[in-house]
Amino acid sequence: MQQNYLENKTFEKTNFLVSPLLKGEYENCIFRNCDFSNCDLSEIKFIDCHFLVCNLSLANLAKTAFMAAKFKDCKMLGLHFYKCNLFSLTFSFENCNLNDSSFFQTKIKKTSFINTQLNGVDFTDCDLSASIFDNCDLTNAKFENTLLEKADFRTSYNYSIDPEINKIKKAKFSLSAISGLLDKYGIEIDQ
Predict the structure, then answer these.
(1) What is the C-alpha separation between 85 and 147, in angstroms, rounded?
(2) Burial (CB count <10 Å: 0-12, 13-18, 19+), residue 120
(3) N or C, which end of the chain is more exposed by having fewer CB within 10 Å?
(4) Reduced to 3 states, what is the DSSP secondary structure of residue 85?
(5) What is the pTM of this model?
(6) Are 82 and 106 within 8 A, CB to CB?
(7) With contact defined as beta carbons under 8 Å apart, do 148 and 165 qualify?
(8) Residue pair 130/108 in contact by the 8 Å Cβ criterion
(9) pLDDT digit string (tens) for 69-123?
């Protein structure tokens, strides 16, 4: 079966549930105001692609490749990134809603999460070394056996990270949110 290859193409206001995206490789493509919700994106490669104001909620990401993908102003609820092709998995998120998604066992060093909702996101066994969490809401995000060395949480909030079961050497936190590292002890901290 011949694989589709598209380069430097812009997709606008497309509902991919109605007109499915062809399997193949998309390089330097822009997806603007597109709806991928509940779509099968399995085995598709996105290289240097930009997703702007798109809905990818509950899309099937089995063996999907994201290489240097950028997501901005996207709704991305309940995504299972751990099912992606993990080779060269790199992306960044700005003004996105990733609530209830999972990055279980992914190696996504130096990932940028900017102004992003990360409520209930599972980062168990994830390598987030040197990642940036800039002004992110991490309510009920799960950090367990997570590599957070040199990660920056200084402007983020509502996180609960147990230093005894996560690696946080040289990670950065703000004094005002330091209680998120002490939650398990049930102590009260006055500010």
Answers:
(1) 20
(2) middle
(3) N
(4) coil
(5) 0.93
(6) yes
(7) no
(8) no
(9) 999 999 999 999 999 999 989 999 999 999 999 999 999 999 999 999 999 999 9
Handedness of CA 168, 80, 54, 27 (dihedral sign): positive
Contact call for residues 140 and 157 (beta carbons, < 8 A): no
**Kind and range of the H or E run holding 11:** strand 10-12
Instruction: For residue 2, name the pLDDT band (cuts at 50, 70, 90).
Output: very low
Which residue is listed with tokens 């399997």?
23
| DSSP one-letter string for the chain | -PPEEEES-EEES-BTTTSPPPSEEEES-EEES-B-TT-B-TT-EEES-EEES-B-TT-B-TT-EEESEEEES-B-TT-BGGGS--TT--EEEES-B-TT-B-TT-B-TT-EEES-B-TT-B-TT-B-TT-EEES-B-TT-B-SS-B-TT-B-TT-BS----TTTSB-TT-B--GGGGGGGTGGGT-----
Assigned token pair, 132: 């940036």
Tell me how far apart the alpha carbons of residues 131 and 93 are, in angstroms, rounded to a whole number.
11
Residues in CB range of 169: below 8 A, 6 or more apart: 149, 150
Counted residue by residue, the chain has a size of 191
Are the C-beta atoms of 119 and 140 separated by less than 8 Å? yes
Check: CB of residue 70 under 8 Å from CB of residue 51. Answer: yes
Q: Which amino acid is at 81?
A: F
End-to-end CA distance of the chain: 63
